[in-house]
Amino acid sequence: MPSEHETVGAYALGILDDAEATAFEAHLAGCEWCAQQLDELAGMEPMLAALADLPGSGSTPSIGDSLSAKPTPRLVERLVDEVAEKRAQKRRRSFYMIAAAAALIIAGPLAAIAANSGGSSGGGQVTASSAQTAFSAMADKQSATDASSGASATIGTEQKDWGTQAVLELKNVKGPLKCSLVAVAKNGQRVTMSSWSVPNWGYGIPDAQTEESKKPLYIGGATAFKPNEIDHFEVVTFDGKKLVQVNA
């Protein structure tokens, strides 16, 4: 490998002198490999500051020094490895979410299915209540009603190899609203499992004038978290209002 290729990590950290940086930039203009590596290593300077206190890092420049002192080649190598691992973790998370979506497609259109007939909403009608059928078959269900909003939710969950499949039964919610089902993990991380619109006539309204309004909404979602990693679920509007919370 040409020596210029080995310089990309140091260039990303901004630790080359003017002559070295100029030489590398001339090489970079015609090297697709280095351009790709430089893109992968973008944002390394904040990581350098974060790793400054690692054992064995040697004399590492402080943030205030603006990298005026060069880190050792060993530290540069460790930083590059750290970025590679972070990128790999991101790719793995993306893979899990794609797997979850694929599983929902195979199992049936759970990700955005209302089990009512649609009424005045127009468009295609749901003829097979796949989400409701999946909900009925789920043994693990938890329910809650919010005293403020009046919304009532029951969430069925089922563990999968890739994480958790869930189906929400939502009642006593009037529109127009745009809502999301959010899983909140025990570590505090929040993941949106699905989203939908609530029409004017609403879902699961007990004293509604039409049959469509009386029927609950059944909608599926998925997350890479396992059931034992989830603390609770929230139904929230797009403007941040929590309609109801259900413990896992």
From TrEMBL:
Highest taxon of source: Bacteria
TM ranges: 95-115
Pfam family membership, one: zf-HC2
Putative zinc-finger domain ranges (all copies): 8-35
Keywords assigned: Membrane, Transcription, Transcription regulation, Transmembrane, Transmembrane helix
Protein name: RNA polymerase subunit sigma
Protein's UniProt keywords contain Transmembrane helix: yes
Gene3D superfamilies per UniProt: Anti-sigma factor, zinc-finger domain (1.10.10.1320)
